[in-house]
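From the shared-data thread, chain only:
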Amino acid sequence: MSMKIIQTHDYKTQLIALYMDAFAKGASEQYIDEAALDIYIEKLLNEGITLVAIENEQIFGALLSCPLKFDKDITSDITENFAIEKCVYVAEMMVAEQARGKGIGRQLLTAFFETPDTKLYSDAFIRVWDKNVGAIALYEKMGFAPYTSIEQTKQKADGSETFVMQKIYLHKKMN
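Structure, as tokens:
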């Protein structure tokens, strides 16, 4: 496979499709407002660092980050103990289902920490569903440690009812 990791501000349509595939199906299946998602992805592309794992113009994975202050759900545990303006937030980390288990997430995180823009930050945070043990294991291998958690109320994909997801914020001290 001749997949490469590139930094980009493009591929919005493919990023939206990857997001929908990652979060509107499978174990974490939930309702996604596509108009709101379009605005959210556009904001991340414009205001953060976006890395994609790409082969033949097809995206197999993506890491989208932004300053931590953009996270609407940030807890007081974090705001009271860190200089938020010096924190970067890995807002989205996604790998296409058919490409999982091939090291793409590790490659994306490695490239992210080598990006010159990350040198502006003293700390990094990432938030993950507590049932996503594969992702948690990867983040811990990459130097992140659980810091705090929140509960998020989500709507089922069919809109029938809501459910609660436990999310863990993991923290990593930057260089």
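DSSP finds five helices and seven strands in the chain.
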